[in-house]
Amino acid sequence: MDTGETPVGFIGLGNMGAPMAKRLLDWPGGLVVCDMRPDALRPFTDEGATAAASAAEVAERCGVVSIVVLNDEQVRAVITGPDGILTTAKPGTVIAVHSTISDHTAVALAAECAERGVEFVDAPISGGAAGAQRGGLAVMIGGSEAAFAAVRAPFSSFASLLVHAGEVGAGTRMKLARNLLHFIAFTAASEAQRLAEAAGLNITELGKVVRHSDSHTGGPGAIMLRDTTAPVATGDFWFPILGHVRDLGEKDLSLALELGERLDIDLPLARLALDGLGDGLGVGPGEISKEHA
């Protein structure tokens, strides 16, 4: 489907939805917006977008409909409710859910949409409101090749990275894996702050150091370059590189654990990291990890 001259619909103009939708104000086919709050609609209608009173009205006008609402229940209501998208959507319409929902919900909704000849993609996003404002989001898309092709152009208004993760549900599974890293890292950051605070350090300054160095090194994503998690063969190009990362990491983790013991600060994530770093990198435990085993 050529969506270039087809209106795009956007349902949900909250903290994430609004900056995403604003990037579509110049969409050649026009933008149709829907939100329960009239004050959320006004900035868009003032700029030329069309307001719709219901999800059904959005679908009646649009070939691609993006949804950014709170949870699975709201997504279901928007799509299958009495005034939902499926009451008016024409065959070939693409429904895209940017909310992070259950992958089971995505698969079930896709089946209902398919009965009406409607395409469904789960298209969760990463990059936050700031990324949306810059047009720099990453979108992980689960759906058919045809649906991915249909959303590529409109999604490129608010995203600089579009990944076709696979079939319906794959986009959500990729988002969950991405956020697993995100929130474990937050927990690790809290553990690092406790250690630094106990050592009498300024944890605000520590935060500056972390953000500064991660902006250069790429943070945890810097090691996510291989296409498998299988063990690395000793003759493989990656073995000396990841082995070096393991040795440095085990040294620094063991020193942090020793400091924590002296300061009577428990560091459970650091212990787990020391035990699992080498195996996680695919090169096996190093000498320091073996000593702590």
Structural topology:
Elements (H helix, E strand, L loop, with lengths): L7 E4 L5 H6 L8 E4 L3 H8 L4 E2 L3 H7 L2 E4 L4 H9 L13 E4 L5 H13 L3 E4 L2 E2 L1 H7 L2 E6 L2 H11 L3 E8 L3 H29 L4 H15 L20 H26 L4 H14 L5 H6 L1
Walk me through the structure.
The structure is a single chain. By secondary structure, the chain is of the alpha/beta class. It has 12 helices and 9 strands. It has helices at 17-22, 38-45, 55-61, 72-80, 103-115, 128-134, 145-155, 170-198, 203-217, 238-263, 268-281, 287-292; strands spanning 8-11, 31-34, 50-51, 64-67, 94-97, 119-122, 125-126, 137-142, 159-166. A 6-stranded parallel beta sheet has the order 3-2-1-4-5-6, with helices on both faces. Helix 10 (238-263) packs antiparallel against helix 11 (268-281). The longest helix is centred in the middle third of the chain and has 29 residues, at 170-198. It is elongated, with a radius of gyration of 23 Å. The N and C termini lie far apart (58 Å).
